[in-house]
Amino acid sequence: MSKKTTIYDIAKKLNITAATVSRALNNNPKISEATRALVLKTAAKMNYEQNKLALALKSGKSFNVGVIVPRIDSNFFASVIRGIEEELHPEGYHVIICQTHDQKSLELANINSLLNAQVDGVLMSISNANDATKPNNPKEGIDIEENSIFDNLIKKNVPLIFFDRKKDIKGVSSIVIDDFKGAYDATQHLIDQGKKRIAHLSNNRDIEIFKNRYLGYKQALIDNGIAFDDNLVIECFSKVADGRKVTQKLLDMKEPPDAIFSVSDFSALGAIQEILEQDLKIPEDISVVGFSNEPFTKFMELSITSVDQSPTEMGRIAAKVFLEEVNNDSKIKSEKHVVLSPELMIRKSSLSSASSAVTA
Amino acid sequence: MSKKTTIYDIAKKLNITAATVSRALNNNPKISEATRALVLKTAAKMNYEQNKLALALKSGKSFNVGVIVPRIDSNFFASVIRGIEEELHPEGYHVIICQTHDQKSLELANINSLLNAQVDGVLMSISNANDATKPNNPKEGIDIEENSIFDNLIKKNVPLIFFDRKKDIKGVSSIVIDDFKGAYDATQHLIDQGKKRIAHLSNNRDIEIFKNRYLGYKQALIDNGIAFDDNLVIECFSKVADGRKVTQKLLDMKEPPDAIFSVSDFSALGAIQEILEQDLKIPEDISVVGFSNEPFTKFMELSITSVDQSPTEMGRIAAKVFLEEVNNDSKIKSEKHVVLSPELMIRKSSLSSASSAVTA
DNA sequence: TATATTTATGTAATCGATTACGAATGATGC
DNA sequence: GCATCATTCGTAATCGATTACATAAATATA
Questions:
Q1: Protein fold of B7-50
Q2: What integer pLDDT is reported at residue A2 of this predicted model?
Q3: Class of domain B61-177+311-341
Q4: In the predicted model, is pLDDT for residue A137 greater than 60?
Q5: Please, which pLDDT band fits residue A228 given cuts at 50, 70 and 90?
């Protein structure tokens, strides 16, 4: 319908050039107050709105950032994105969402696609794809083949920020929680409740967060003089059904566990369902602790103890780190590593005595 | 670091012009096979990637769409966005997320901001801000002052699609669920269970969805010969705490209700908590039905009956309608109104007899 | 008054692509 | 051998902004 008005339209109407209009609109000092006022008034009258696309092409800044997550319909990722959006919106940035569904190929495709769209930065949580088929690179945390996915970003000097699930790449900042501590605290809590045979529902430990939770769990056992038993550690997906399945196996053991610490709230829920099904009592017979503090853990009548990751805060900080990097003109670039402290939310699924208060 | 390579770089290297390079890259027939192959090979060698920004400026298509929601960290909206992203990504579109936090001012600001960014379309669910202070326009569903928010979009011919919370605007498509039917079915179900005094936790009925749920509830009562009692309808926010508060009032009545139908799962949960607190039995004494099928309703031990809105499907369809509109070159523009049928998920919170099966 | 110095504006290049138009080349037909 | 035509490629405009440089006008200085 009505074509968008450009600075040329305004220029023509006022018999001046587009350059003058541009200067008037941008508070350039080299212009008379009279013409500035005139241009501003005319621009308003003609409903002028700056074409950010043209500006982006000229300036090389699109004021768009890409956010890549495995999926958006999980409370954790949605909350992180919420934090990112809230922090970046006032600064004039738009947030572009990409999902990988845990496929490495989509991860690469999304990065390239975002680069073509000229985003000013990429904030991402890496995918959970199973890389187990490839031989592990012995150099701790550095897998050259893997990192080549991010080469394009780094070569083009586009800020990359990892949150939650990161890779160790030189020059790349990251915001994570202290997964080791989260797991350690959860395990210690179970031990404090008198539990001695604590199982661990793990997940792909090629991913740092799952490895660290595993290590935190193990260390807490060791520090309390409890023998670590490999048979009590089972890998399982973050799904209710998978949690049920592996819990069934645990309960079938000669010496079943008296507590379960899961890296996921969903598998923790599956564990609870299976335990109750077998007419065992929670937390008396078996205590259960999850991870992520998904909303439902608080809502259940038998509320589930879980580790809160303050996802919105994580998103906010990731956004702030991005802003620092993108506004840093100096050549000295520093990577920043923020580690948030997790908070154990103690609830009914693990609180043996009625004495202590339950966290809201 | 390494500047991005442009078609001019390729042209210079091959001693041809950028026009030829562009033609080679775009499968333009007016070019020899020899040069095309040469250009393609050189482009690959130089790691050429098309600058979508330049393309967008030239073509007027940014291949970005804006999605505006009250907030992203609710399962419903996150799921809708998931559907939108999954449908639009294969078509080459990026999804830009904006949150309004239910503020009309942010709604307007976001629309304008997206327009400046030259998005190809806007998919949105309108905010829940209370317009009650303004006198209602008698013309059903058409509020001129309100709609002026969308004027810019319509004037510029940018496709606008509403999902879930819509306004009736000429030429604007919408995807909603049949909220009337959802509420009707829920109420009928409660009546089928023998309930006779059914309360309704409503919400701001200036919003269509809440109005329709109210009307569906009312009609079900009437159709079953149950007198409608205004005292049993209470407005309340979609929050657990608010649900508790108003339920307390309901239970304090001389004749308390024997069932509660809530427009929100969260206030339904609050209701349940309050009911159990008062040592009443669910569903024997009081049944509770929510709306939205939030994940936690299924997970609770006392699972909550709720109305599923198939949000991912809603997002997919919204995206498809957008694609139809954006790909429609003809001048005949038609608005499309898709109404999805909601599905009542019957669970323990309302199923009196153990005879019937509970939906998963 | 003549010169120096601001101040305000215009000219034109630039960002990186696409494309209408025109020109050069070679092939074809008679 | 020459007109005709198709093929292939170059020229230059365009999308809508910004900005270095040039220039004209206005003001200050001696």
A1: 434 Repressor (Amino-terminal Domain) (1.10.260)
A2: 60
A3: alpha beta
A4: no
A5: very high
Cβ distance B117 to A49 less than 8 Å, yes or no, reads no
Q: Class of the A61-177+311-340 domain?
A: alpha beta
CA B216 to chain CA mean position, Å: 20
Cβ–Cβ under 8 Å, residues B155 and B149:
no
Task: Give burial (CB, 10 Å; 0-12/13-18/19+) of A22.
Answer: middle
- Give, in degrees to the nearest 5, the angle at Cα A12 between A9 and A18: 75
10 Å Cβ neighbour count for B316?
20
Instruction: Identify all chain B residues contacting A79, using CB atoms and an 8 Å cutoff.
Output: 73
Angle at A245 between CA A242 and CA A246, to 5 degrees: 90
Rounded mean pLDDT of A303-318?
Answer: 98
Token pair of A291 as six digits: 């991870």
Site from B51, B73, B99, B106 to mutate, A interface, most A CB atoms within 10 angstroms: B73
Q: Is the pLDDT of residue B128 over 80?
A: no
Strand partners, B122: B66, B160
Q: Answer whether residue A135 shows pLDDT above 60.
A: no
- Interstrand relation of A287-289 and A259-262 (parallel, antiparallel or unpaired): parallel
Euclidean distance between CA atoms A261 and A267, whole angstroms: 10
For residue A152, give the 3-state DSSP assignment: helix
Q: Residue count of chain A, please give it.
A: 360
Burial pattern A82-119, b for ≥16 Cβ within 10 A else e, equals bbbbbbbbeeebbbbbbbbeeebebbbebbebbbbbbb
Q: Which nucleotides of D are covered by protein (CB under 7 A)?
A: 7-12, 14-20
List, as one string, the DSSP characters of B246-280: HHHHHHHSSS--SEEEES-HHHHHHHHHHHHHTT-
B18 touches strand D (CB under 7 A): yes
Structure tokens at A262: 């899961």
| Residues A176/A209, Cβ–Cβ less than 8 Å | yes
Name the nearest CA neighbour of B241 among A360, A358, A297.
A360
Q: Name the β-bridge partners of A305.
A: A289
Domain B7-50 and domain B179-309, same fold? Reply is no
Structural domain spans, chain B: 7-50, 61-177+311-341, 179-309
By three-state DSSP, how is residue A264 classified? coil
The fraction of chain B above a pLDDT of 90, given in percent, is 82
For domain B179-309, is the CATH number 3.40.50.2300?
Answer: yes
Say which residues have a Cβ less than 8 Å from residue A169's Cβ, sequence separation at least 6: A142, A147, A150, A154, A160
